[in-house]
Amino acid sequence: MASAPPKLQRIVELFAGAPKDLRVEALLEYSRKVPALPPRLEGQQASMEQVEECQTPFFLDTEVDDERRVTAWFDCPPEAPTTRGFAGILAEGLNGATVEEVLAVPNDFYTQMGLAEAISSLRLRGMGAILGRLKRQVRERAGACR
Fold this sequence. Notes:
Blueprint: H1 6-16, H2 20-31, E1 49-50, E2 59-64, E3 70-75, H3 81-94, H4 99-103, H5 109-112, H6 121-145
Antiparallel strand pairs: 1-2, 2-3
Helix pairs in contact: 1-3, 2-3, 3-6
């Protein structure tokens, strides 16, 4: 996957090379790595975008700084560990990447990780929707920064 930021590429390779049962474990490990919301977003789900395709309440917000670096914030309950794990992967793999790097991420990069073998197609659709919303927000915020 040549178009992914280096941090995300390493995560994809780690998952792709792992046995199926370890992929699920690694996904659960990433669920514990979702960064805490900044004070301006704590308890402010109404100011974040809800991803309706997710089975669980999932909210996201992105920032693009003056250097066109992206930071994504996620609000997802601990009771949804696979979805929360995907948020942890996105946070670790994309935060600090440039707008161009984020927008170049293949929309189905998670299939290269072997997640389709480990989790349901319904959850995979939710993951695709999360990435789609994140990229749309990045495009909008990058346009506002020009």
